[in-house]
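Page 47, continued from p. 46.
Same chain as before, 217 aa.
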Amino acid sequence: MLHNKDFYNTEIANSEDPFMKRATDYTAFLVKQYHPLSWDKIARERRLGFPMSEQALTLAGFVPAPSDIKKTSAERLSTQIMSENLPQRASTREQKERQDQRRELERRIRTQDHWEPFAQQQMDTGALSEQDILYAVDRAAGLPLDRSVQRMRLEDAVKVWKLATPEEKRRLKPIFAQKAESAADRLGSLPEKQRKKLATQILEILNEQVPNPPPGE
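Result:
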């Protein structure tokens, strides 16, 4: 609170708000700290449509297994790389609320949970812009690993490729072709030893045989 940030580096109160509004925000933040963590988990499970049996287990103190357990080696490394590159500056409450709404829209699109009326409502209230809607639609259409590899540095993407499963490599290979083409200018500015090593790795990836897609895909 002394730094006006919560655990997630989000601004607790807007410094430009009137004193009473900031005092209300700080009070709400303090009250929330006394909520048992299970309450927040149950609220999230209810929002995501988890069955009552799983919500009851959470209430009894049984927490779900970490999502990393279900991830492949490539997905775990990708998550680690992207986490290390996240900006550490605090975001405002307004930015955080907008991000939460965008994630909720993305979830609704993936689960086909009446997302179009929700998107329209968010646009009508000004909570999300048309660009936010298109961004959520684009993210919901892809796979997390694919999106992460598209966004990370070429050098980091090569590390992920080495741990990828044959199915993951099939999806990632076209992404590598695009990344290699778009990074051509940057590669030319690298020291010769580093440039040759990276170029050799990219050629190996592009020449590697990957499984064909299943029939009908």
